[in-house]
Amino acid sequence: MNWTSKLAIAMGVAAIVIGWTASDLVGLVQLAEESRRVHSAKTAKSGGAEITLPRDANGHFYVDAEINGTRVQMLADTGASVIALGEDVADDVGLDPDTLDYTESVSTANGTAAAAYVELDEVRVGSIVRRDVKAIVTRGLRGALLGMSFFNTLSKVSIESDELVLKD
């Protein structure tokens, strides 16, 4: 079973749980497919770098990343289809939230939110660098989530003991 099939099954389960529509799922699968295609061509090779992130006391994994050259602390969220930025973080990394087109509706843990699709020039986690990464800016979100539009570009994402392992 290829990664697209696995993603479609996982998203189908998520859809049932949180009430996404079929068109929401098709759009997310297409976005993930496009992200993987684009990033396979634009990956900055770093010789197989591996980043290990410790689990915090609350059970989460946090990443000190750089987006467009600005340091951003992000929650690693494999349940997020794309990188998600709150308007506060979007502004910090050089995007003007007031000029974005919030025409998408996304389901979050806190309900439905308006979102705008954007492309980030560069996302850096340690020595792992990706360019032209798909993301969303979401109204109502504070902070940032490192989602599958980044993770899908890696050769390995795994939880081993109390560590999240990311391999280029």
Structure description:
Helices cover 28% and strands 39% of the residues. It is built from four helices and ten strands; from the N terminus they run H-H-E-E-E-E-H-E-E-E-E-H-E-E. A six-stranded mixed β-barrel has the order 2-3-8-4-7-6. A three-stranded antiparallel β-sheet has the order 1-10-9, with no helix packed on it. Helix 1 packs antiparallel against helix 2. About 11% of the residues have low confidence.
The name of the CATH architecture is Beta Barrel
Number of helices: 4
CATH homologous superfamily placement: Acid Proteases
Distance from first to last alpha carbon: 22 Å
Q: Percent range for helical residues?
A: 25-40%
Structural class: alpha+beta
Gyration radius, in Å: 15 Å
| CATH fold assignment | Cathepsin D, subunit A, domain 1
Q: Class, according to the CATH hierarchy?
A: Mainly Beta
What characterizes the major β-sheet? 6 strands, mixed, barrel
Q: What does the overall shape look like?
A: globular
Q: Regions with pLDDT < 50 over 5+ consecutive residues?
A: 13-18, 35-46
State the total count of DSSP E strands: 10
Count of the domains: 1
Mean pLDDT, to the nearest integer, reads 81
Percent of sequence in beta strands: 35-45%
**Which strand order spans the largest sheet, edge to edge or round the barrel?**
2-3-8-4-7-6
Tell me the series of helices and strands, N- to C-terminal. Answer: HHEEEEHEEEEHEE
